[in-house]
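Re: the request from the purification team.
They wanted to know what the chain is likely to look like in 3D before they choose a buffer screen. I agreed to run a prediction and write the result into the notebook, where they can find it.
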Amino acid sequence: MFTHFPNLSIVPVDNSVAEQAAFLRGKYGLRTPDAIVVASAIVSQAEVLVFVTYDLRLEQVEEIPCRLIHQI
């Protein structure tokens, strides 16, 4: 299913993603799945215009632009 989405990349969770996720968890108190998704975008240097979420905790992340769904 995901192979048909344009501009979608599958990023392996390697040591650099895991380390970045651990940093984000410590700095912002993110849940592990959220930290892995954000870390994957950061490590892969994704061209993120905005990371859209329902999670209020992700709005505080400074490393990539995050917006709450109701703000869009």
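For the purification team: Residues 2 and 10 are 9 Å apart (CA to CA).
Please add any questions underneath this entry.
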